[in-house]
Design a protein that fits this description.
The chain is an alpha+beta fold. The chain has 20 helices and 21 strands. Strand 8 and strand 9 form a beta hairpin. Helix 7 (182-206) packs across helix 20 and helix 12 (382-391) runs antiparallel to helix 14. It is globular.
Length: 614
Amino acid sequence: MSSHTPQQVSRRAVLSGSFAALMLGLTGCTDITPEPAPVSGSPTGAIPPRKLKFAAAAPALSLDPAAAGDNDSFRVTRQIYETLVSIDPQTGGPMAGLAESWTESEDGLRYTFALRRGVRFHDGTEFNAQAVVANFERWLNLSAEQRENGLQGFYQVFHHLSDVPELPEDNQSAQAPQTNPSETNEKLEATLAQQESQLQAMRIQFESELFTGDSQGGSASYFESVEAPDEFTVQLNLRRRLTGVIEAFTLPGLAIASPASLSGGSAEQPVPPLNELPVGTGPYRFVEHQDNLLRLELNESYWNTARVTNNPQHPERIEISSISRAQNRQTALLSGDIDAFDMVSVDILRTLVRNARMVVNRDPFSVLYLGLHHGAAWLDNPTFRRAIAHAVDKGRLSRELFINGTKSAQGILPSTFGVENPDNVIFYSPDEAKKLLELIGYDGSPIDFAYPRNVARNYMALPERTFALIAEDLAAVGIKVNPVPMDWIEGQYLQKVRSEGFKGLHLLGFSGAYRNEDDFISGVLSAKQYEFGYTSPLLDAQILTARSIPVGEERTAAYRSILTTLTHDLPLVPLVFPISALALDAAVTFYPSSPVLDEVFLDIKLERNTHLTG
């Protein structure tokens, strides 16, 4: 991940048009703390708490970080909970969080964390090693539904229920699409030769003991155990080296909850689940969640007093609501009903600029893709999938539907990882798509195409229009689609395409949460047998092998081979690496934008309090 040093809003504003418009946008953006003034109408002249009213594009689906999988939920839980390791806003690397320091054994199988002292959860419970162990024990025993809903937590990091893949025999690694052009055939032959060479090397490696120690989960689980040698020391034991595990502890799904909130209480008054009453160590406490409004207030006993005092302009109260339509979010901002909103779409950007509102970019760290279910008619044909990949004009998508700076994607890894695209990349070529369709005798049968509606994600601000452009591209080469719009709310869309295995085309994306290639690869493919109707022992073996390779050229080459396999098999077509953005009212003079969405509201600066009641 590239450095994502927080910038003053005035330096990161995305402003279109003339220099005059730019100067309008800069008006009022200053880092000078204003002198507080008495509020008229108050009998005592007391200044009400600084309040931030924030509008998301969708409601939080869960306040239990271990069972959450959407960024709107994590936006909230990042304010309430904290993790053992934090993200350095200057470098994007790991820094001390609830753990002050850590050490790694020479073989990479043991990590020892020295915990921070003097920290208490919002319920008064002391943070210590036993609290950390209690959270691990809870993660190990999550229900099937909680595991399914959680997408950035224990099971994703440690691959706890995975088994060692059984390597395919010779010539069973993949099915090669049959095409006419000699150049394409040469590339396919080279790909197959590379796969066979990798298989031979991995067969030798897989004959040895890949993992050590007993597993509480699958045979390919990296987690062995966790223990507390003393009150403020935690030791994590692994079954195999896991490169980037320290960075993984920054994930919101590995946030530490109060052990008293995980169990206990009487039969008459059991402890409420975290989804109803979240209890962490973070800078804000949960107040209530009613209808479409979620309220938080400053944790007056927050352990990081320096962080509080260093920003005297921080919000003291927070209200988060959801407004699904971008135009409605814009209207609420311009009318003063909210102070900020996420998911600025390109079609409202100019209006915001003309009204002197700030638009703050995030560096791209997500990918939008087109899913291709291998169990659907025609999509089960590799040549047909290849025709689709040739038919989609990714450049037009990025130009017309995304904020300037969005790049076309040839693989699912952003360029920040430095992994070059494989040699078998499929470029936009309608003529080639038509040739392939003619070759296989495509009869024009329509393909179901699912897309979400009434939502905006940081990888897809305009899903309906994204569908429309892709459908146009497919129609131009003769591929007919049957539109299948689905509501996003309450996880309906995700459930349909990821768990139930919608058989057709679908739009979805993935947001990276920490700087590790496996986060993207395993995140996108975590439900590949359902979402794409796709299984590949070769790919599974490639991914397992790559996870343990230290950072360097060998690791980069391993992930390039993974991209080669994905391009060959085509369970999905990567589309763009989008830039997402937020809009701010003049009262917000600083927002800690982050490509991995590690945006703690305690670091926001409010110039003045625009909400004088409530």
